[in-house]
Amino acid sequence: MTLTPEQHAEIEEQRSLSQPTRRAVSPGMEERLYTAHPVLDHGLVRVIDYMGDDSAITQAARVSYGRGTKKVSDDRGLIRYLMRHWHSTPFEMCEVKFHVKLPVFVARQWIRHRTANVNEYSARYSILDREFYIPEPDKLAAQSTVNHQGRGAVLQGEEAARVLDILREDAMRSYDHYEDMLTPDAEAGKQGLARELARMNLPMNTYTQWYWKVDLHNLFHFLRLRADAHAQYEIRAYADTMCEIVKDWVPAAYEAFEDYRLGGVNLSGRAVEVLKRRLAGETVTAETSGMSKGEWREFEAVWG
Question: What's its EC (predicted)?
Answer without folding.
Answer: 2.1.1.148
